[in-house]
Specification:
mainly alpha
Length: 115
C-alpha cells in the first residue's frame, strides 16, 4: 500500500475561471455620480471584483503613507472601508475622466507638464 498523497495537477489548480460567473449588472443611472466616467463612455472602475490584469507601480514611502492616510480618512470620516487598490483605481478613473472631459486643461495634463 502506497503512502503517497494524491495532489491536484497544475491544470486543476490553474484552470480558467472566466465564463462561469454571470456578468456584473450594469450600474444604475443614479449611481453615475458616485463613479468616474472614462474614455469608454459610461464605464466605471471595477470596484471589488477579481481582476484579470496586474500592473506594478513603484511609489515613494511618502506617497504610500499619503495613500494610507487617505484610506483611513475615508473610513473614519466617510464610513467607506476601501483597500488601497480600489482607492487607486478610483483615482485613476477620475484622472482619465478629467482628461477626456477637459483635454489640454485637465489636471493630469497640467501636473504632468509641471513635473
Amino acid at each position: 500500500m502506497s503512502r503517497r498523497v494524491s495532489l491536484p495537477t497544475a491544470d486543476d489548480l490553474f484552470r480558467p475561471t472566466s465564463g462561469t460567473a454571470e456578468p456584473a449588472p450594469a450600474p444604475e443611472q443614479g449611481e453615475a455620480s458616485r463613479g468616474a466616467t472614462t474614455r469608454r463612455g459610461n464605464a466605471r472602475t471595477s470596484g471589488r471584483v477579481r481582476h484579470d490584469e496586474k500592473m506594478t507601480v513603484y511609489i515613494t514611502s511618502e506617497e504610500l503613507l499619503e495613500i494610507e492616510h487617505a484610506r483611513l480618512s475615508l473610513r473614519r470620516t466617510h464610513g467607506l472601508a476601501v483597500d488601497r487598490g480600489r482607492l487607486v483605481r478610483q483615482a485613476v478613473a477620475l484622472a482619465l475622466a478629467d482628461l477626456e472631459a477637459h483635454g489640454e486643461e485637465s489636471q493630469l495634463v497640467q501636473r504632468l507638464r509641471d513635473s
